[in-house]
Protein 1
Amino acid sequence: MINKIIMATNNKNKLRETRDILSPLGIEVISLSDAGIDVDPDETGETFEENATIKAQAVLELTDLPVIADDSGLCVEALGGRPGVHSARTYPEHEECAGLLEDMKDIPEGSRSAYFQCVIVYMDKNACIVFSGKCEGSIGFEQKGENGFGYDPVFMYEGRTLAEMSEDEKNSISHRGAALRDLYEYLKERNSEENADK
Ligand code: IMP
């Protein structure tokens, strides 16, 4: 029976979004610092899946608990898929929206398609399962909204930015929400199978 999972992050937004979705299962999701683990492996992979796997493996080596690791980013068509796996490092922290708007200042409406991608890897001593989700939209021309994090204030989805949405609304359409709902189904199934075996 899985009742506690370490999430390989200390990012409060990711933790909150994850806890919101997994909480009905009664599974406690703890951060690296909650678990007393201090590890920050280099994300040297070329794909979201490689980077999530690197993070999950590094943590699993230090614990007996199951681990989930998430890697995510924004892919902008007009920038050839950038910032992609480098989303967290392309612009200075808290300046990612301004930096992206500057890089896209000459790109007209209609050519500003973008998507968020999220890959979540679940890993324990016997299993490694990959879940993924995508959220398709476009990049606006200015920052709007106060919620969320990262590129949310410039990412347009059906006429609004993600930063203009409530947490629940964002979870219902987001890349991370989609991957987490698949993870939720997997964990629910596993726990019910293990209960049935008792
Ligand atoms: P990671 O921690 O390596 O997965 O970094 C992902 C980066 O992509 C974050 O630092 C954000 O800049 C961006 N990102 C990922 N998901 C979101 C999201 O839901 N909203 C806004 N930005 C995001």
Protein 2
Amino acid sequence: MKERLQELQQEALSKVEEAVTLADLQEIRVAYMGKKGPITEVLRGMGKLSKEERPVIGELANKVREAIADELDQKKAKLEDAELEKKLAEETIDVTLPGRPVQVGGPHLLTSIVEEIEDLFIGMGFEIREGPEVETDYYNFEALNLPKGHPARDMQDSFYITEDLLLRTHTSPVQARTMGEYNGSQPVKMICPGKVYRRDTDDATHSHQFTQVEGLYVDKDVRMSDLKGVLNRFAKQMFGEEREIRLRPSFFPFTEPSVEMDISCKVCNGNGCSVCKGTGWIEILGGGMVHPRVLEMAGYDPKVYNGFAFGMGPERIAMLKYGVDDIRHFYTNDIRFLKQYHKA
Ligand code: PHE
């Protein structure tokens, strides 16, 4: 029996030595140490032994077991270490691999042009104001001298939300809001960029949602020549020093007198071409002297204060400046269009 146990130990230890995976070790453990293993088998035959021999063989059997278990544990630790090493080696990062290029975005053309307009007017002392896109009928129309039923409301087809709320059709309500806030207490010099909405059918030059920049200057001695001077500076800075401007009489309910401003066509230099439809001029914005009723409703005494206002569409400005031929390009976000106007 002694020999058999020693033999088993030899056998088990050499198998452990040969084992290459953790699964091999588990197999050996089950085979030798399990209840149905050969050692248990040997112990089962102990009944036949003499009293003296029994404890000796018992002790030996335990030692054999321990020896095998020790060896199994040690080998297990070794294999686990080796496995970890292998994993670490496999996962090393190759820092020499070329990187994947990162796609860098840039501001949308419309964002850039609005910022350019803002910078330009900030340079002339205007502050930036904002107002709500969901506007009351009062600020969008009434406070701008467009009472209910006024035919000029039809100039701006509107999206009404309730009888009293609508998506603003222009940025002019922000004039009325800003003046109303100051309530006649101080001069106002502001521009307001923002989105506006009209019930138009979208085509190359119309969009149901577009952008406007409003301008307003109210003080004690503001003249039409001030309006002309400011707009002339704007036109030259935006489109080039060689551009000329021209004011034509027009009509807006909130300005009197009202004007429309043209710039000389930069394609033909004012000689007439297809872009300016042979006139040599291109219309870019509307404006005028703030109507006394509008001043009055906002708390400004029209005998003391007067002012000018104007409104322009940044899409139109960008289209003219960069030769964009369809307003829908600003909203359909074709990546090729967007990339073309990214500033470096
Ligand atoms: N609000 C006018 C429009 O949308 C533009 C404008 C603004 C005209 C200010 C005069 C003064 O058509």
Protein 3
Amino acid sequence: MKRFENKVVLVTGGTRGIGQACAALFAREGAKVAICGRDAATATAAAGAMEGDVHGYGCDIGDVESVKSLIDGVIAELGTIEILVNNAGITRDGLLMRMKDTDWDDVLRTNLNSAFYTCRAAARSMLKNRYGRIINLTSVVGMHGQGGQTNYAAAKAGIIGFTKSYAQEVGSRNITVNAVAPGFIGTDMTADLGEKALETVLDRVPLKRAGTVEDVAEGVAFLASDAAAYITGEVLCIDGGLGM
Ligand code: NDP
């Protein structure tokens, strides 16, 4: 028996990076997996490229109506949602005094409002089943801050408060809500960092390397598994010790 045999999993933003690694792992371990990205064709292609039962949806995760359609679509096609990974995210870095309103709003709605929209829309199905595993992607930046990322840090810190609060609301229904806080992981999101800046960051990482998307996916899968049934409201740092 595989670890997630027949479980229905939704990974937001599973078209690439950490989300793609999470989706691929769940699918390899027997789950029916839904992923989404902003463009439906891209999401469908990404789903088709993965081994196992993976379905792609187009959705702007920061738009409430788009999320409602996503959740309705996944439930109509796969029957339910048992595991929800709120992974989709963006950065729009800049110093606060020069930050545009759109850079603030886009980061907040994509990284924080999205979790509210998905959790609320998926709640009925999870509460009815008296089962749910929710894993929200935060960041070490949400715990420690980072100059040039006030918008992103605010969203990711918000995710931690959201996680702990929602965990208290739904614990009695056998729904766990946890967060994963990656440090520096090699994906498109971090690809623009210059060589010198990368060296400086990695120098601060006790394990002396960037994390891989698989490092993060393993932590997400653990929190979604039966082995983590008594863990809720936690923040699991997967950062090579960066945030210590
Ligand atoms: P990537 O930039 O590699 O991937 C981002 C994913 O989010 C893509 O699949 C993208 O899909 C999706 N996405 C972005 N905006 C939207 C939107 N409006 N609607 C739907 N999907 C969207 O990011 P990572 O894999 O690096 O990051 C994943 C998560 O981990 C994020 O929440 C990030 O903040 C967090 N994190 C990452 C770290 C890192 O070092 N990489 C460190 C700490 C946290 P598409 O482009 O197809 O729309």
Protein 4
Amino acid sequence: MAKQRVLSGIQPSGKLTLGNYIGAMKNFVALQHEHDCFFMVVDLHAITVPQEPAALREQSEAVAALFVAAGLDPAQASIFMQSHVPAHAELGWLLTTMTYMGELERMTQFKDKSEGKDAVGAGLFVYPSLMAADILLYNSNLVPVGDDQKQHLELTRDLAGRFNYRYGETFVIPEPFIPKVGARIMSLDDGTKKMSKSSPNVGSFIALLDSPDEIRKKISRAKTDLGREIIYDVQNKPEVSNLMTIFAQCSGQTLEQVQTTYDGQGYGAFKKDLAEVVVQALEPLQNKYADIRSSGEIHHILREGAERASTVAEITLREVKEAMGFLPRAH
Ligand code: AQP
């Protein structure tokens, strides 16, 4: 049986967080051996909110290097920049013309990201169509994402079905792949909001490249509650439950084990141990990251990845344009 195709991406819209790692990258690494994988740095998505050019360039290279530092093997998975494969922008436009305003208006991520802002770019609104293009270009079977992306994936499935119905079988309908444990890591200052790399409060997230001291400081200041028990109860103790999830994910323990170990102990002792668990979990990744950045090998990895990705993407784009009735360019 042919290997299933997997595609996912991360935006270079800030410093990658522990949320991106636990919710996305750890799963990417686990999938690469059994599937035909494409992982990209989605820079075209990042510009749906304003980005400073020098920061965008640096963050893009940093995300790609973190992919490799986290364990992605360029020999197993294609690692590339979205903007290096022009077919993404082109199919994105074609699918935008087939997406209904009402569908986009229902997207909760758009509502969250546009809330309270005066000038909201149209790109932020139509971005789910570009995400659909990313996935459909590769005929991806599985899309590993955090549960916050589930709604966008549903739209991708609807668009693929709509296209196939109008123009004939062209796209594979992708399935979401949402891990059950640790799928969503919440902010350190509000256990009901997800941890986000673009949050203006740097204390709300742990960046993968934070120094040990920064990690200790952020965890010691993380919000808890007026109680003192280490109990997993998302409804009533969202912040403590989130810290327990981080502990479990970084140590390999179950939530029950964490709860038993800290039974009867206060938040202070738990937070102190949690900081050390996170520091230790990130140390190998941080060391590998430093090696990759200093070697400059990431540029070579990205060039090869873009070549492999383009080969697949261009075939799909040609089929789509033919199906839609575009006049082929003569050779
Ligand atoms: N807090 C999180 N917990 C679990 N998974 C998360 N992901 C993001 N935050 C968490 C997963 O990481 C992948 C890449 O996300 P993205 O960079 O494309 O965009 P995002 O989901 O909008 O991530 P951020 O960090 O919140 O970025 P900004 O602040 O720029 O919007 C996705 O698979 C996502 O589920």
